[in-house]
Amino acid sequence: MKKTGLFLAALAIGALGAAPAFAANVYETLKSDPQFSTLTKIIEANDLKFRYTEGNITVFAPTDEALANQPGGVDDLLVGDNPSNKENARALLLYSIVSGRHTPASLTGKVTEATTLQRGKVTIDGTQSPIHYGHSKFGANVSGDAIEASNGVIIPIDALPIPVFEETTPMAPAIQ
Questions:
Q1: What averages of pLDDT result for each successive group of 10 residues across the chain (176 residues)?
Q2: To which H or E segment does residue 92 belong?
Q3: Are strands 121-125 and 132-133 parallel, antiparallel or unpaired?
Q4: Sheet holding 121-125: strands in order across?
Q5: Looking at domain 22-102+141-157, does it have CATH number 2.30.180.10?
Q6: CA-closest candidate to residue 107, choices 123, 86, 90
Q7: Sheet containing 97-99: which strands, arranged edge to edge?
Q8: What residue ranges do the domains of the chain occupy?
């Protein structure tokens, strides 16, 4: 009987040793990292904390430096009481989150199309150095090492990526 107890104790200790070192979810990890203090304020102001605590996600997270250099500033993203501002802020935040765990190593050397939590597609160009997220003009570059969290990966970027919707030219009516 004692051998069984010792065996189970050894298994439990082994399982604890194999547990990942990152127990905090993406939101908690962002909040604890000073380079993302503005981003977490924007997340909180727009009631999106839950999007960073669930699922298996990768967040391309603009740093405080990136947000400080944002043309026009980010004050309107911090004001969650205006419905228009809140809708725009939520769209920008959800555009920066893709489903699944992606690391710079898994993205390097190829172009990846991913689905954002905004439900659109985004191109991640790993053929460039640094890796580029989003549109060539309104996207962002990876600016730091990836940070692991319990439910995903945080990849620091140097700008706030803005989705670009391609305009299509309406077809001329058919001549009959």
A1: 47 46 87 98 95 96 96 86 86 96 96 94 96 95 97 97 70 54
A2: helix 83-95
A3: antiparallel
A4: 111-115, 121-125, 132-133, 140-141
A5: yes
A6: 123
A7: 97-99, 57-62, 152-157, 147-149
A8: 22-102+141-157
